[in-house]
Amino acid sequence: MEDPVSNQSSNKTAAQDVEAVQISDPRDINESAQDDDLTCSNAPKLSLFGLFWYFFYNFGLFAWGGPVAQIALIKEQIVVKEKWITLARFQRVFAVYQILPGPEAAELCMFFGCLSAGRIGGIVAGLGFILPGFILMLAASYLYTLAGLENKYFNASFRALQPIVAAMIFKATHKIADHSVVKHSTKKVDPFLIIAAICTAINSTLHLNIFISLGLYGVIYMFIARRLWIPAGILFILQYAAYAIYAVFRGVPSPVSLALGIAKSPSLANLFLLGLVAGTLSFGGAYTAIPFVQVEAVLKGGWLPQRVFIDCIAIGNMLPAPLVIFATFVGFQGGNSEGGLGKAFAGAVVITLGMFFPCFLFTIAGHSLLEKLVHNKFLASFFDGLCGAVIGVIAVISFQILKSSIQGTERDFLTKPVELAVAKAAQSGTAAVLFTLALAILYKFTNKWATIVLVVSGAVAGQFLFLDDLSSN
After folding, report:
1. Distance CA 87, CA 452 (A)
2. Cα–Cα 20 to 30 A to 80, which of 150, 365, 418, 448?
3. What is the pTM of this model?
């Protein structure tokens, strides 16, 4: 027979528990749920070979379309489908990596490798992601030395591939923006994050330094999240007032001011140093490293022609690799001009090692510190604002790539004879149609093989669409 006193005591305890739950502050429950979102990890424990193959096969071979497409692919596969971590944690990690040097896609692969198999796993995952692009860029550099993009067949395929790659980047921009402007506590679109993205895009067109914009909107959003409207408004106004004063007295900043004169000749030591400094300065990815390498190799050093440099950026955009892989091409051409093919391959290797060393160092060695940054509540709103602002930068880059892929470059309009230049200009309509068809196919077919099929089909189609008979005259 049950003891009535014991029953009464048990019921009283249960009632107290219910009451405690009822009077709990909902904000505490909300914060607890957010903490879980930022600490939850379901990463599988893979062997080192399994980890290498996972990132080599799933991302290294399919990393078409540049950094935006690569990040979207990683998020879709690992976060959305396989749920290694939550979307909230991914956004915070992605925001943290915006302030680190190096390509974000490679850093994200290293991060997930660390979750699966520790720091060694991070190194293995990074190598798996980078290796396919490095091998392909090395092969492309060698083929370019033999034939060059002046070859009419080679050029025709590239002309068709450019609008297709632009379509890949546009779709990827949309996928990344889906969650970058969402406030995680409410799961709704935050208008302030949209404003941050728009203003950062405007700042990019005004040639205001990207790092100033990203950091500034991170701080502004910190104030907004704490309802400190006056400091947020003052910072917002000050950015344009300061820019106006600088532009009046000093003019718009020139990329030449980045030059350090560290690669006056393409010796192996200079190439490694060029890659190391460019990699250290590449906050936000390759788009920061490009002007620095251009100034050092083309303007200051003078050992790399501007035309060849533009070609290497075009090839880098086509390959399944981080865009900073263009450095491999620069090193190959520099080494070749210095001492033939032997030095060309050595130059490609050393500049690539220099370019990727900083991101491996910061991501692998600083993994624990980065995890603390991800979970820091005080910095949470800063990273959310920064992540929203990045969308503005990505959008501007997407439009720039679209414009150049459809209209061509100034170099096309300097082509001789004049009839050939006119013919190239007339191909803009065909390129626009290719972009539209590629974008429709990418939205219709989400299988990862769709990108490979598009690239191969585009290369073949270019032989029929852009192979100008005038070029044989």
Report:
1. 27
2. 365
3. 0.67
pLDDT in tens, 321-363: 888 899 999 999 999 988 888 899 999 999 999 999 998 988 8
Indicate the helix (H) or strand (E) that contains 168: helix 152-180
DSSP type of residue 316: H
Residues 6+ apart with CB under 8 A from 350: 268, 271, 272, 275, 331
**Separation CA 136–CA 396 (nearest Å):** 28
Closest by alpha carbon to 104, among 77, 68, 57?
68
Q: Say whether 283 sits in a helix, a strand or coil.
A: strand
Distance from CA of residue 133 to its chain's centroid? 15
Q: How many CB atoms lie within 10 A of CB 47?
A: 13
Q: Which residue has the higher pLDDT, 146 or 437?
A: 437
66 and 321 Cβ atoms separated by less than 8 Å = no
CB 38 within 8 A of CB 92: yes
CB 413 within 8 A of CB 425: yes
What is d(CA 460, CA 434) in angstroms, rounded to the nearest whole number? 13
Rounded to a whole number of angstroms, the distance between the first and last alpha carbons of the chain is 107
Digit-coded pLDDT (tens) for 246-266: 888 888 776 666 577 888 889
Question: What is the distance between the alpha carbons of residues 255 and 281, in angstroms, rounded to a whole number?
Answer: 13
By C-alpha distance, which of 332, 271, 279, 329 is closest to 296? 271
Which phi and psi (to 5°) does residue 227 adopt? 60, 35
Question: Is 26:185 a contact under the CB 8 Å cutoff?
Answer: no
d(CA 100, CA 415): 41
H-helix or E-strand containing 303? none
The whole-angstrom separation of Cα 261 and Cα 277 is 11
> CA of 138: how far to CAs of 22, 109, 132, 316, in Å?
64, 22, 10, 11
d(CA 275, CA 297): 11
462, 165 Cβ separation under 8 angstroms? no
* Least confident among 33-47, 137-151, 302-316: 33-47
Question: What's the CA gap between 390 and 407, in Å, rounded?
Answer: 26
Residue 182 phi, psi dihedral angles, 5° rounding: -105, 130
Tokens of 265: 């000749």
Q: Of 161, 184, 171, nearest to 72 (Cα)?
A: 171
* Tokens 């935006």 belong to residue: 68
Q: DSSP string of 375-419? A: H-HHHHHHHHHHHHHHHHHHHHHHHHHHHHHHH--HHHHT-SSHH
**Residue 226 to residue 69: CA distance in whole angstroms:** 34
Residue 164's identity, in one-letter code, is: I
> What's the token pair of residue 177?
């923006």
